[in-house]
């Protein structure tokens, strides 16, 4: 962290540098140092203007989020900096290169003139952390860009280009060539001195209409509503009052459970990227990948890889499946081009990087091979024995298995050190999570390469050990177990789904399994019934499968799907469930939504604690990120283990003891880790440090 100060003619250049993203850190003293230098320049007779710059790649990605973990008053130093900049008697030009986000954008709008490189990007992403711009952004940006445009920036969190920022008035010029040289030229002409202070600009003409329209946005969060409240305060034309309201609202949001959960997830994604246990191995570069299996999962994986600009070969022995795979990839990439997500040139380049073949022998040699065939050990064996024969000696061999024993799969080759699990989540080109499974003989270099690969393709890689289901599906098994028991006891599919969706889950369990395909879960349950006879499931989902109702793909599962996608309640299913309860001599009862949520979510927490205790998951946050990025757990609750800390482990144990006295109470044996932490008055969060 440093600041380089230099005089260029009558201009003072203040270049601040805080790698990797030039965060405006209060704890590290950068914010205070910039403020002191701006204040000192006010009495320096050799200085006529001031240039603030963060360099060519990142002006500033915003405040240091670590500063938000203290008292709200801690970030007052940022507000002091903004006021000092805006109140400067000497014109201040922000020379913006690259990213200009959050607090960095607030610093820019507090300046008197803004010039940017053509590649600069601008955004207020605070809402993604359950916050609002807290350094004057809600008061200054609407005066500059108009209320509607500024509100949209703050509520969406999306980035805009330099050209868009210029069009709406957020910046004043786009630089020709070097942005610092351009800013110095602007300062030398005296043009910057003509700019007005953004906080003193008049009330935007569209304020009332913009406030009205914003208030009708769907799914408006607490942070979103407070952003609108702050912008509304501009109508009073009192900047000081508006800034105070903004600071008060920011402090409330910063202390809220929602923002703390979202910040936990933000830091958690960084934490899980670091392989624990002292692994410091280098990674092998991956530029070409072969995907073995051209079904739904293989197709999605191939699209994800092509979107990361990798060369991809798909091997699929069935001609009809291969043609369908190729067509699906083509459709996906061309649709992205048609919708403007990528250019037609990029689409064509990515399609040209794809090759398809019916045999491994015909495929081009690759750095990484990903097996994506049916979830059957015999099928996996065939693939890995073939890979052992044709893959280059230094290639990584990966299995997309979701539940099978990776160590057993690795034994199908003569090089188990090169074998790793890469469990993608469907649809693989969309879902963010990638479970990276570390086998007993997986080499550190192989694991490091897999994690680097995850980052390369834009996925959140989370390392998991080997067990049935790894992290995600092993926890999901207990979640589903309770959901199916609740159906036996008196709940309906729609009540279970409704209660958990109201809690915040992206989709209830009955709808999830209808979407995934009920036959997938059925096959897993049949295998586990043999392997784990002491942990029975309800027979309700099996009875539905026995009717050939496998979900959306067959037009019926727990629900009917007349149009192929919209669930409708089916009386036949309700009758089937009631009859089953009668058959097992269970008196149905009225079940509250609260019990549904507690039993399903607490079962998730308990199994997550067992995984951490067994070392399958390295840290509680690993479980959280798996569930946030792979299973639709509500981001505002931070993941199951974070949520457990908010509940309190003592209360969690108390509720679990109550459930032990109910139907299938054996499932509520507390994880030893929960008992240990509760005894020591510690939390799961303590284990993430």
TrEMBL record:
Lineage: Bacteria, Pseudomonadati, Pseudomonadota, Alphaproteobacteria, Hyphomicrobiales
GO annotation, biological process: fatty acid metabolic process; lipid catabolic process
Organism expressing this protein natively: Rhizobium etli
Signal sequence region: none
Designated name of the protein: 3-hydroxyacyl-CoA dehydrogenase/enoyl-CoA hydratase/dodecenoyl-CoA isomerase protein
Record field: catalytic activity: a (3S)-3-hydroxyacyl-CoA + NAD(+) = a 3-oxoacyl-CoA + NADH + H(+)
UniProt entry keywords in alphabetical sequence: Fatty acid metabolism, Isomerase, Lipid degradation, Lipid metabolism, Lyase, Multifunctional enzyme, NAD, Oxidoreductase, Peroxisome, Plasmid
Domain 3-hydroxyacyl-CoA dehydrogenase C-terminal: 469-561, 596-681
Pfam families to which the protein is assigned, alphabetical: 3HCDH, 3HCDH_N, ECH_1
Cell location: Peroxisome
């Amino acid at each position: 962290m440093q600041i380089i100060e230099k005089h260029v003619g009558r201009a003072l250049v203040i270049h601040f540098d805080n790698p990797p993203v030039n965060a405006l850190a209060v704890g590290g003293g950068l914010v205070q140092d910039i403020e002191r230098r701006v204040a000192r320049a006010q009495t320096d007779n050799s200085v006529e203007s001031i240039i603030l710059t963060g360099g060519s790649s990142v002006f500033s990605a915003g405040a240091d989020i670590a500063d938000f973990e203290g008292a709200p008053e801690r970030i007052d130093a940022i507000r002091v900096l903004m006021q000092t900049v805006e109140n400067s008697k000497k014109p201040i030009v922000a020379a913006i290169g690259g990213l200009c986000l959050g607090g960095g954008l607030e610093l820019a709008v507090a300046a008197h003139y803004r010039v940017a490189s053509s590649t600069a990007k601008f955004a207020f992403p605070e809402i993604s952390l359950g916050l609002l711009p807290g350094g004057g952004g809600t008061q200054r940006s609407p005066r500059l860009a108009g209320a509607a445009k500024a509100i949209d920036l703050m509520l969406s969190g999306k980035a805009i280009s330099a050209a868009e920022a210029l069009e709406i008035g957020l910046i004043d010029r786009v630089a020709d060539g070097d942005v610092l040289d351009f800013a110095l030229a602007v300062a030398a002409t005296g043009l910057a001195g003509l700019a007005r202070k953004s906080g003193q600009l008049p009330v935007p003409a569209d304020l009332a209409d913009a406030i009205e329209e914003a208030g009708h946005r769907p799914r408006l969060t607490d942070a979103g509503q407070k952003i609108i409240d702050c912008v509304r305060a501009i109508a009073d034309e009192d900047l000081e009052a508006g800034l105070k309201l903004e600071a008060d609202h920011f402090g409330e949001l910063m202390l809220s459970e929602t923002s703390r959960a979202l910040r936990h997830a933000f830091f958690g994604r960084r934490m899980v990227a670091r392989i624990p246990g002292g692994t410091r191995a280098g990674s092998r570069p991956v530029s070409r990948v072969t995907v073995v299996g051209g079904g739904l999962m293989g197709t999605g994986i191939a699209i994800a890889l092509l979107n990361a600009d990798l060369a991809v070969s798909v091997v699929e022995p069935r001609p009809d499946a291969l043609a369908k795979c190729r067509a699906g990839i083509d459709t996906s990439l061309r649709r992205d081009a048609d919708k403007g997500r990528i250019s037609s040139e990029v689409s064509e380049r990515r399609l040209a990087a794809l090759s398809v073949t019916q045999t491994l022998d015909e495929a081009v040699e690759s750095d990484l091979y990903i097996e994506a065939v049916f979830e059957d050990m015999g099928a996996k064996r065939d693939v890995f024995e073939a890979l052992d024969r044709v893959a280059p000696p230094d290639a990584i061999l990966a299995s997309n298995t979701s539940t099978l024993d990776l160590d057993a799969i690795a034994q199908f080759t003569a090089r188990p050190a090169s074998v790793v699990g890469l469990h993608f989540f469907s649809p693989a080109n969309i879902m963010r999570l990638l479970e990276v499974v570390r086998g007993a003989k997986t080499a550190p270099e192989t694991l490091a390469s897999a994690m680097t690969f995850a980052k390369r393709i834009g996925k959140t890689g989370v390392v998991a050990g080997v067990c049935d289901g790894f992290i995600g599906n092993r926890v999901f098994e207990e979640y589903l177990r309770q959901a199916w028991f609740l159906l036996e006891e008196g709940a309906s599919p729609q009540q279970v789904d409704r209660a958990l969706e109201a809690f915040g889950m992206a989709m209830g369990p009955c709808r999830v399994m209808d979407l995934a395909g009920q036959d997938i879960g059925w096959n897993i349950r049949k295998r586990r019934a043999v392997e784990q006879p002491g942990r029975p499931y309800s027979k309700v989902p099996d009875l539905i499968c026995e009717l050939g109702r496998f979900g959306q793909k067959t037009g019926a599962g727990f629900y009917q799907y007349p149009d192929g996608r919209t669930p409708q309640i089916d009386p036949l299913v309700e009758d089937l469930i009631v009859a089953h309860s009668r058959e097992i001599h269970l008196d149905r009862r009225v079940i509250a939504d609260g019990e549904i949520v507690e039993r399903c979510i607490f079962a998730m927490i308990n199994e997550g604690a067992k995984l951490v205790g067994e070392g399958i998951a390295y840290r509680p946050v690993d479980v959280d990120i798996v569930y946030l990025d792979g299973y639709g757990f509500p981001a505002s609750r931070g993941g199951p283990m974070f949520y457990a800390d908010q509940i309190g482990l003592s209360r969690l144990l108390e509720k679990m003891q109550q459930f032990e006295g109910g139907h299938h109470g054996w499932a509520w044996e507390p994880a030893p880790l929960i008992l240990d932490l509760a005894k020591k008055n510690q939390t799961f969060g303590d284990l993430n440090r």
